[in-house]
Write a structure and sequence with these properties.
About 70% of the residues lie in helices and about 0% in strands. The radius of gyration is 22 Å and the shape is elongated. The protein is mainly alpha-helical. Helix 4 packs across helix 5 and helix 4 packs across helix 6. A hairpin with a 2-residue loop joins strand 1 and strand 2. The chain contains 6 helices and 2 strands.
Length: about 220
């Protein structure tokens, strides 16, 4: 009887993994072009430091204009190739992160609720709200695990998008080149370079996000 009561939780957790994966894919369709614009703006700003006369040409509109119009002609491949450079890596980044984060959070939080219930005989996740400290601990842990898992995808994506600059060196923006250059410069550890501060940031973001979510639902 107890196993029968717990089976829906396992199904729900499996659904959370799949739902997280596909929601991450949907997010990637938006974050890929916006991340590309952000990275190009940051690169252009670093190049223009110390030269105030050129800073006006390195804003977002100037960057887009410079890539969309080449030699006075409209580049139709901009939206499919340039703006979505690194999209495959970003699909992995967003998909893995959301899948691991939501999947693990759902499974761990439900396990905690089952443990707190009276033998699980009358278990209902909606009637077992988690405390603030528990939400912070679970979401911080799952957020850190998710970010560590998806970080290599993030590194590859960043290298791909940063490689496609105004020089239009398309070879530098390929998936193969990004992976090869990262590995040659730092081995397998290179894919997790800078993961420490970034993971700490992910813990703060995910814990605050989930805490706000849980508390809002309980209102």
């Amino acid at each position: 009887k107890g196993a029968a009561n717990q089976s829906p939780i396992l199904d729900e957790n499996s659904s959370a993994l799949v739902a997280g994966l596909f929601s991450g894919f949907a997010t990637a369709c938006i974050s890929t072009p916006t991340d590309w614009i952000k990275i190009q703006a940051q690169i252009s700003l670093s190049k223009s430091c110390g030269n105030e006369k050129q800073t006006a040409g390195y804003d977002v509109s100037s960057i887009l204009k410079r890539h969309i119009w080449k030699d006075g002609k409209f580049d139709g491949s901009f939206f499919s190739r340039t703006l979505y450079s690194g999209h495959v890596a970003n699909l992995g980044r967003e998909g893995v992160f959301t899948m691991v984060y939501l999947g693990m959070y759902d499974r761990i939080s439900n396990a905690v609720k089952v443990r707190r219930s009276h033998g699980g005989a009358t278990f209902d996740t909606n009637e077992q709200p988690l405390g603030m400290g528990t939400v912070i601990l679970i979401s911080s842990f799952t957020g850190a695990c998710a970010w560590i898992c998806n970080y290599p995808f993030d590194t590859v994506k960043t290298v791909m998008q940063a490689g496609l600059s105004s020089t239009q060196n398309n070879e530098r923006s390929t998936l193969r080149y990004a992976i090869r250059s990262i590995y040659s410069s730092g081995g397998w550890k290179g894919f997790w370079r800078g993961a420490g501060p970034s993971t700490f940031r992910a813990m703060l973001v995910t814990s605050s996000r989930m805490l706000a979510y849980e508390k809002t639902i309980q209102m």
